[in-house]
Amino acid sequence: MSKRHSSSKRKLSAAALRSVSAIAVCLSSIGASLAAPSTPDAALIEKGRYIAAASDCSACHSVQGREEYTGGMAFALPFGTIHSTNITPDQEHGIGAYTEEEFARAIRRGIRKDGSTLYPAMPYPSYARMTDEDMHALYVYFHNGTTPSAAQPPKNTIPWPLSMRWPLIFWRGIFSPTPKKALKTTQAAYDDMILARGAYLVEGPGHCGACHSPRGLAMQEKALSTQEGDAYLSGGAAVDGYIPPSLRADDRTGLGRWSEDDIATFLATGRNQKGSAFGSMTPAIMHGTQNLSAADLHAIAHYLHHLGPSRLKEKPWVYDPRVTNELHQGRTTERGAMLYVNNCAACHRTDGAGYPDVFPPLAGNPVVMSADPASLVHIVQSGATLPAMHKAPSALTMPSFEGHLSDQEIADVVTFIRQSWGNNAPPVSKRDVEKLKKTMPPRNMSEGPIPQN
Amino acid sequence: MNTKNADAIIVGAGWAGTIMAKELTEAGLSVIVLERGKEHTTAIEGAYPDSIDELRGAIRKRLFQNLAKTTVTIRNTVDQTALPYRQLAAFLPGEGVGGAGLHWSGVHFRADPNDLRLRSAMEERYGKNFIPKDMHLQDYGVTYEELEPFFDKAEKVFGTSGTAYTVKGKVIGDGNVFAPDRSSDFPLPAMNDTFSAATFRKAAHDAGYHPYSLPAANASQPYTNPYGCQMGPCNFCGYCSGYDCYLYSKASPNVNILPALRQDKRFTLISNAHVLRVDLDGSKTKATGVTYLDTTTQRETSLKADLVILSAFQFHNVHLMLLSGIGKPYDPVKNTGTIGRNFVYQTITTSRVWLPENNYTNQFIGAGGVGVAIDDFNSMNFDHGPLGFVGGSPVWVNQAGVKPIAAAVGTGGHGTPRWGKGYKDALVDTYKHSLAIDAHGSNMAYRDVYLDLDPTWKDAYGLPLLRMTFTWKDNDIRMNQYVVNKIAPIARAMGATKVSLNHLEFGQPFDTRHYQTTHLGGGAIMGDNPQTSALNRYLQSWDVSNVFVIGSNAFPQGMGYNPTGTVAALAYWSAHHIRTTYLKSPGPMVQA
């Protein structure tokens, strides 16, 4: 503590010295900017902070209720639980003792300081393509721009022999590209500067594929970049009970009907005319993408927008007013219709259009039409909160309906939603809902801050 | 040595307090807002469907002041002994973050230009002698033209729905022909008419009047305000007044300002902080801060600041000034002093019209601010010369959604049975086929109607309660009777099968047992003369220049319109002058 105090004192006096000299310089040219010039260090730390946001380090290494970057997020695997680590500059408990080379090796190649291999929960197959320049800024940020802490995450509970890390060397060798190769594939493919920047951010630091790409038998991402095939970003397996949808141009189940502006707005504020963030995407926006520049968000959007569909047989969604007309005439005989009117329509409206930007539309919403109904059922069961973002300070909530609606009623109402207004997803049974209850995420607002508006 | 806790301390987290906090943090000041009640979170308390529980909400008064801790005493005349107001009925002050701004309806008016300078305007038109001797008729000291930019700003923050008549002198819509000119249109188009409002619109037009859509801070469309705060559109569920809107459609400090404020590091909100007094220095001309009681720990804390803003509910502001010794208490006998002077209310009566049985008024549909009004008998829009009274009333159908308990408690009108089959038939008939028409009138200030500290009763914290001395006066009863009679031709034009016109009777005292309105005003009014007003035109205390008092307490008389729009505009007006003038050179902004 006292150490930190004196070091911050040191920084202060250095800053004072600098501003004195700055004033001396400025005095000769009145009218010149009086702002103290930022040192390369400060600028580099800021750049590193930005890259940390683009890489969403917080998503796994900062957990609510613990100090920033001290890890502790649990990853439940079939054979045990692993926890994210302390990445503060603490010499003993964090990464303070890492050299820049060791730091870069851990992030891009998944090799710890002691030479053992990191669990691929750390997305080093994606980070592999991050540039040396970004690595340097990130290193400077984590060593000089964050607060060291001795907080320890809980111990991993992987039983021997699975706890041995050496077999991961083979996994890494097969599935994780070398930084050189990775960067080359990501950079080589584009003449368009914006597209290239978008590809870099999405495939590299953004590691979007970690959730949004399907994985193979060895848990490897089936494609790590757009060069590696249409599986890339075509939708992943459930994370915390929610299904990461396709980010490709799939018309019904992907972003086929989202414009570039829609994507950029979503990443900046967690909401747009087409939908609202939920599940793990919410912290990814909160800690990550909302901090990115408009230019970078536009580059990401531009890149995602240029990806083709992965499901070529999807018939484009067209709004069908039949159900709307029936509800407007008071006809609620269809399965789930009355439940919808009584529980959902206040916000999502009888025409399924919602109130864009505030309450998301259900008509044509890819989340609603995904083959696996887990996201929709879980949102109904648990409710959802869209927290305040810098550029969208209003938090918006949907209450939990678990306990208020029976399993059969939830099955009926989500089936109604999945099959109205041109939506055409398969029905959901009571059994499906019962099963999904077992993986139900924590009830809305039972964890995390409560919106105060 | 500077030991202040913040640059500014604001008392009360309602509309006025949050507007001031937003403005002052924008100016770079650190601000602490003290709120006596608790946090109110729409996400939990307002979560659908529990939020629309009438028993918990409007009947058991979920969002209102806890009178067990502190209340007011009330008497009609100076020769009576006042007794505490122990059950919420005639008026309903809010409590907790958002204040009355969380439970209000949403009718959002700009003041009529004449109402802001009513004495001058009346004297110019009818002469000095027209005004009764004991009536304290006064000007605000600020004009509509001066306030216009701030009315405009408030509407944009509130996401107000309405139809303009003129913008920059050009007629642009079929809004209120009596409304003053605007610098820009409403941010959102007017809400749709309910059936009853549409019926009134047509009938009022046929009767020769000028109907218009009530300006409503209920969003007719999704809306994002200049602070980036979002509103969902209203679906006419009818749970506005007394409720926190689960659709985020009704403007409130909680929805429209606090989300942005809470992101500002210069802003601190302390709830459960009951302010006991403003602390003054020895000269009694400068506030040093405030002392509050943490109602969860019962601990007293004093905070220091350069600037103190009182923005609690109208009478709480007056109460705090009296408890703190800011300014001179009003004495009705000597007619001296200003704190407690010009305590005013509104003169409101509700009439009912029954339509033929093939007309369904669907009274469960509604919104707090939605409706159709006429201003033909409001303010100075008609000839008072032969009538012998000052003031007026807008008349409107404001179907705010009649909830089941309220409908059942209401009767079928005068002369119908109070029990049995006759009661039930009348109840059903009334609920299905009737509509209510309000005469929402002004109330003037009088020498013997005022606020002071009660000599007997104390609150839970040992402080004297505020005493109200209030009753109806002939001037306002005459006005009410005149305007209510104008409803008859409208009812006829509607094809009414039965009409119940309700008006005040001469000699009828103010009765605290029945809800009338929460639009209390005055008691610490603004004006040009420190002998007759507590605050100058910038809502700055004449006596303690680093105290500003924002709220309807500043109204010299009760206007026919709902007060919130004017309170918000006055807050922005005051904040503007604090930012542009006061902060550069603290001190009195008007020389006494």
Name the features.
heterodimer; A: 453 residues; mainly alpha; two-stranded antiparallel sheet; 20 helices; 42% helix; disordered N terminus; B: 592 residues; alpha+beta; FAD/NAD(P)-binding domain; seven-stranded mixed beta sheet; six-stranded antiparallel beta sheet; 15 helices; 23% helix; globular; flavoprotein (chain B); FAD/NAD-bd_sf (chain B)
Summarize the structure.
Chain B: Belongs to the GMC oxidoreductase family. Chain B: It comes from Neokomagataea tanensis NBRC 106556. The complex is a heterodimer of chains A (453) and B (592). Chain A is mainly alpha-helical and 453 residues long.
Q: Would you mind describing this structure in some detail?
A:
- The complex is a heterodimer of chains A (453) and B (592).
- With 453 residues, chain A is mainly alpha-helical.
- Chain A is 42% helix and 3% strand.
- Chain A has helices at 2-27, 40-54, 57-61, 100-109, 124-127, 132-144, 167-175, 179-188, 193-203, 209-212, 260-269, 281-288, 294-306, 322-328, 337-343, 345-348, 366-369, 374-382, 407-418, 430-438, and strands spanning 74-77, 80-83, 384-386, 396-398.
- Chain A has a two-stranded antiparallel ribbon with strand order 1-2.
- In chain A, a hairpin with a 2-residue loop joins β1 and β2.
- In chain A, α2 (40-54) packs across α6 and α19 packs across α20 (430-438).
- The model of chain A is unreliable at 1-38 (pLDDT under 50).
- Chain B is built from 15 helices and 21 strands.
- Chain B has 592 residues and is an alpha+beta fold.
- In chain B, α1 (15-26) runs parallel beside α15 (564-580), α6 packs across α15 and α7 crosses α14.
- Helix content of chain B is 23%, strand content 17%.
- The longest helix of chain B is centred in the C-terminal third of the chain and has 17 residues, at 564-580.
- The two termini of chain B are 31 Å apart.
- In chain B, the strands form 5 sheets. In chain B, strands 1, 2, 10, 11, 12, 13 and 21 form a 7-stranded mixed sheet that branches. Chain B has a 6-stranded antiparallel sheet with strand order 7-15-16-17-14-20. A 4-stranded mixed sheet of chain B has the order 4-3-19-18, covered by helices on one side.
- The interface between A and B is medium-sized, with 25 and 30 residues.
- Chain A: Its cofactor is heme c.
